[in-house]
Amino acid sequence: MPVKIRLQRHGKKGKPFYWVVAADSRAKRDGKFLEKLGIYNPNTNPATIEINVDNSVQWLQNGAQPTDTARAILSYKGVLLKHHLLGGVRKGALTEEQVEEKFNAWLEEKEKSIAAKVSGLDKAKAEARQKALAAEKEVSEKRALAAVEAELPETPEGESTEAEVEAVAEAPEANAAVETTETVEETVEEAKEEVAEAATEEAPKAEKDTEEAAATEEE
After folding, report:
1. DSSP 3-state assignment of 66?
2. What are the E-state strand segments in 27-88?
3. How does 107-143 read in b/e, with b if 16+ C-beta sit within 10 Å?
4. Once rounded to an integer, what is the mean pLDDT over residues 65-94?
5. Coil, strand, or helix at residue 184?
6. Is 27 a domain residue?
7. Which residues touch 119 (CB under 8 Å, ≥6 apart)?
């Protein structure tokens, strides 16, 4: 019976995840399988992959053929490497202890590489978050500045806001000078009116004195 190691689809629409299975090549893709070997979830970053290495190697040794995607997953998890090293044991080139030593060393390097990738992703996310916050802050400052400018009175053409402020500051002094001038003018007018009234009252008296003096001379 020809056996394939392939993916079997699960999950919701738009967010699928897969089982890595050993199945009869004549069976439907999502139908019955012989053994579940692991899972593959592409919705995370990096993708989540869990594989039973020993069982997968056993199926490969029994002649199972992986699909292209399954082969890439098995290679990523070191299944193909261990299968190759165990082939050296069968030929007498390596011992099982040497195979385990080489495989464990490879796993350590792989884990370091994955950890570095995760760290880089976290750093990139932090930088993107900082840039987003900086952009949001800049937009908020521009909006606040626009609101303040909208509340300020319009400045006539040719005049600056500073000149307008100085004019407002000098306005009380100018008003006081105008009021003082008006008060003096009113005082002068009142004095003129009083002099005119006095002259009007004294005119009949002077005329009477003149007539009396003329009569006396005639006598």
Report:
1. strand
2. 35-41, 48-51, 65-66
3. eeeeeeeeeeeeeeeeeeeeeeeeeeeeeeeeeeeee
4. 91
5. helix
6. yes
7. none
